[in-house]
């Protein structure tokens, strides 16, 4: 009893950093209630539910069990289709709302749904295809743009009211398609809980555009004081069908340029597959022999999926215990993953056994329960990592900037372990780049106590990110992060921190267009810093005092996935904000524009038929660890021993020369082998090599040497960095051609 009283005093005196642990929670009476309840429930988990080994690993700071203060699952994606078909309700002796017949009713039901489900789960609540599902109501109600704007404005205001536990707004994420996805295009529209057989969703692009414009303009307008709306976090699905020149999405780009609100899901050049949204919510049984991606990004999720719980591994802590030994580190990582798995299995069992604590979640997950026997079958057990950079510094003496390859090795090792966990338990596992809003500080603070002889920073760098003060070059940072970000199967995102708002909406559009085409990173944000003056509203950049009136402002930036005033951040994140370098993009964007011009030149090249293209070769370019190789069609010789016979005879692949150019400029190695066939017989070779040189591509040319005039130009213009030439002659002339090298070569060949 006395310890509980002490918790109240501790909060009232602001005697712990945990009072500012979550920037979405404000010091308040509700904050006090949440703080006390969280401490008691955390104690319940650790002292009554979890094993001694789990308690020990938690005490030793080897991992962090997220949301210990909640006796519930972590996050979930929900189905708007279910809400439109069933209405809001389904719980005995609680209010039941019939399916919505009008847009304002549908939006109100979604607000009530998200608030209620947020009370049953600890983390983010997500809805997918928001614009696709709601667009038909605009036509059905015969609404003007002004009507839609007012309804959306009321919807957004409602979602930002701090009535959640801890004086917080619900943590909500909306996925917006922009263009009706194929999986929904032929489906009948749902209005009033019934299918309109004369309407299908693909018929409502104009209404989708109206809804998206209204949402973006509401978010851009802000609240009555001009403050940004933190929620819902919109994720726009950027796919091949998007018309970048269309003015209909101008308001989205304006919102991005000014506030940087949205996430952008890269369906153009990443491993994301739009059909995963369907498979994750409809598939009866997932293949447990391989890992699956939880679609939706850092805080989103496909309908009826999510995470049952999250455990983040403290990699620096394991490094400090390994005395500079990679082998010891991997052993300790294996053991820590095993114990983390145990905690997640225990949590899954407890949440499943106490489904009556979550009546609304149980109702809307009842179809999953009916199919599989559990409400939470499609929810992942999530393991995250933190502090890879600091772990590498202690273990290898260099950070992730230099030791990225070992970081990738660790990620692959963890995924192999998770795959084994799936087979062993029958439950889904995924690997996440944990946001770690408070964990970054908590880990470092506790490790300073455990390892007083170590030089430990105020906070650890998030997941496998570069330290925030590494570089100002946006394209350099994304090039480094590309392979790492693509390795995760759970939430991950690259935040492009910018000093202030972009000068135009066109620049915001062009940046997103370039970044989604140039990099395979699945989720991207543009994050400007801005300030809000109580009198003069929005001020670009970090301005602690208003330059117009001298009043103190609220400085906003993205703390992890969402924007909050920097004054509300915990000590670790506050230190990170001070150290952040903001990215410059002008040079990279200029280079990308030049590449686009070069692409046009490549597309105009005549007579350079591509017979095949291999994206990665480790052995064809001496002196290069990796390269790509392009084969041209046809040859002017007909050697009977040629192993590229079909190419010599004129076989061609369906790969275009412009596709080869586009891919090679996107690689990190930027090295191309041009082989054949015989490349020098084609008039398009020299123009292509000149363009490659301009683009900074290293070239190895394979030739039979029968086109000396072409080779002379290659050499005189330095169009190739390496030339490999086949020497062909009659057997009796070999010695004269090779002088004395032939026998030496034969001996070496035999020895090898």
Mean of pLDDT: 88
Largest sheet: 11 strands, mixed
Radius of gyration: 29 Å
Structural class: alpha/beta
β-strand number:
22
Helix percent band: 40-55%
Domain count = 4
Distance between the termini: 78 Å
User: Low-confidence segments, ≥5 residues, pLDDT <50?
Assistant: 278-289, 293-301
Q: Could you outline the blueprint of secondary structure elements for this entry?
A:
Elements: H1 2-12, H2 29-49, H3 52-59, E1 63-65, E2 75-78, H4 80-86, H5 103-118, E3 125-127, H6 130-140, H7 145-159, E4 172-176, H8 182-185, E5 188-191, E6 194-200, H9 205-221, E7 233-238, H10 250-258, E8 263-266, H11 276-282, E9 306-314, H12 315-320, H13 326-353, H14 359-364, H15 366-372, E10 379-386, H16 388-396, H17 404-425, E11 429-432, H18 439-450, H19 474-485, E12 494-498, H20 505-518, E13 523-528, E14 530-533, E15 537-540, E16 554-558, E17 563-565, H21 571-579, H22 586-603, E18 610-617, E19 627-632, H23 645-648, H24 657-666, E20 671-675, H25 685-694, E21 698-703, H26 708-716, E22 722-725, H27 734-738, H28 741-751
Parallel strand pairs: 2-3, 3-4, 4-7, 7-8, 9-10, 10-11, 12-13, 19-20, 20-21, 21-22
Antiparallel strand pairs: 1-9, 2-9, 5-6, 8-13, 14-15, 14-16, 16-17, 18-19
Helix pairs in contact: 1-2, 5-7, 6-9, 7-9, 9-10, 10-20, 13-17, 22-24
